Amino acid sequence: MAANTFLKGGEFLVKSSDHRDLFIPEDFNEEQLMIRDTVRSFVEQEVVPFTDRIEKLEEGLIPSILEKFAELGFLGTHMPESLGGGDLDFITNTLIGDEIGPSGSFTVTYNAQTGIGMLPILYYGTEAQKEKYLPKMITGELKASYCLTEPSSGSDALAAKSTAELNEAGTHYILNGQKMWITNAGFADVFTVFAQVTGKHLPDGKSGFTGFILEKGMPGFTLGAEEKKLGIKGSSTRQIYMENVQVPVENLLGEVGKGHLIAFNVLNIGRFKLGASCLGGFKKLVETSAVYATEREQFQQPIASFGAIKYKLAEQAIRSFVAETAVYRSAQLIQQAEEQYKASGMEFAQSKLEGAKEYALECSIIKVIGSETLDYVVDETVQIFGGMGYSEEGHIARAYRDSRINRIFEGTNEINRMVILSTILKLAMKGELDLLTPGMAVQNELMNGVVPDVTYSGPYAGEQQIVDNFKKVLIMILGTAAQEAMSGKLDLKEEQEILMNLSDIIMDIFNAEGALMRVMKVAENYPQKPIELYDAVLRTYLHDTASNILKYGTDAIASFIAPEIQPAFLSGIRKFTKYPLQNVKENRRKIAAYVLENKRYPF
Ligand SMILES: Cc1cc2nc3c(=O)[nH]c(=O)nc-3n(C[C@H](O)[C@H](O)[C@H](O)COP(=O)(O)OP(=O)(O)OC[C@H]3O[C@@H](n4cnc5c(N)ncnc54)[C@H](O)[C@@H]3O)c2cc1C
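Predict the joint structure of the above. Result:
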């Protein structure tokens, strides 16, 4: 893995990277494949057979599964060896999340324990706090949860009303308030809670949003009943109430008034983990769809023989392939950053924190792509199953309901789309992302016909060009929007529709470029792989992406560009989204044939 070629957060929009350096799932080594198989067997043997009982929230069941997973070492694979963890690299941890993905409610339990449950303490805990809690969380002896949301503050998390007042003796904070939608609350022992430090005795005069570690059994700390939810019914979700809970000052997490750093930095990885586990879910559903479509007969033939069904199977595979590529591409970026920070002498937790922070934008992309791909794929699985997909007797209805939460928690997809855009604009303002130079080049190309001197050759020259062109569409619109925002003509914060259009283009670019690089690498390094399958996926995806970007771009310019210059923009967008016609019908039939022959996700 060449460390010198990796791009910083958001830089993919203005630079290209070498496909030979990209980590792709075809690159997994023997050890990673063994880990994958172990987790897969665990899901098949220890989770799936208990699904009905898990869904009924049978007392003690999900925590006991978590403990069994801990016995195999899987709750600490991202933790330092000094605390009893496995210190596996980020890509391998992503693979574990990917494999645990099809476990429904257990996935949510696992992600909460290992992500938002443990990470606040790893990132911000004192040495004493880390030693007290993390080793026991790794062994499963302690279960963890993360309490940010309140009844009146969800997306606007920093508006939390819970309070923490230091007592006169300076020994305890007195916490009051209520938290809502807390995953794992029913059996958790340790709760990271956010509250506003206020009152007469401010520590060193500091106040504001702050993190605390609370423990089950603290007087005044109580739980609400289990929420009755649409899906992930086996995952414990409760409210918590705090009435004069005395929390020792040693349980302050991080610094007073700096709770927002904990909340947001932990969410980066929370978002990434969510996207990675959606991946396991939709790949499994491709398999489920293929098996059913082969077995179910109508009009004296398997439904898999119908073009309409082949279309669905192919589209499920295409979207899964693209999202899978994006997940491992981002995992590699984070891993490389972590390794670089560690090599520079940074300690374990800080290097993890900084790695995720560097790629906060990519983490939001993965959250949105993962959750929306899963929703698409599961919806089409219901359709392929017909009435059986709608029946509670099968497991498809449950998967359909379970999927839906992913667009809501860890920051709704609307909030994440805005994070994508605001991060890019912040990087540009700080001079860390140069949008100006590529912006001038695009302008020069459009106005004066000056074509950049990058020319591609080889079997994917056209595809490399179209991905470059997609970036030009974004640069053209984003550059103009940023200029108008800076001159006060456009208040971008009030123009969310445009922000949504631009984030959709950004995600399409990330996906398209990743898919292209993966296919190019497979073509060069994996001659045993069916390259015609990969080709068909890439070309079909680019065909669709060109139309999507044309639409998002047109919507955006119609929304804010002055009418007299709209035609110039429009012709630019049309030029940059021109991709030779593909026989998408034949491509999808080819892809469906591979799905059906393998009866699984075929990559
Ligand atoms: C099953 C489940 C488990 C959860 N687990 C946890 C947990 O363990 N810990 C925890 O702290 N929280 C948890 N949550 C809470 C979750 O993170 C929030 O539900 C989520 O952040 C959204 O907040 P909200 O529900 O208040 O929706 P709201 O913030 O009220 O949003 C409602 C709608 O308005 C949109 N919206 C809000 N603000 C804006 C804006 N500025 N611009 C545009 N659109 C906007 C949203 O995108 C959404 O579509 C969980 C929730 C559920 C349902």
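The pocket of flavin-adenine dinucleotide is lined by residues 112, 145-149, 154-155, 181-183, 229, 237, 405, 408-409, 411-412, 414-415, 496 (CB under 6 Å).
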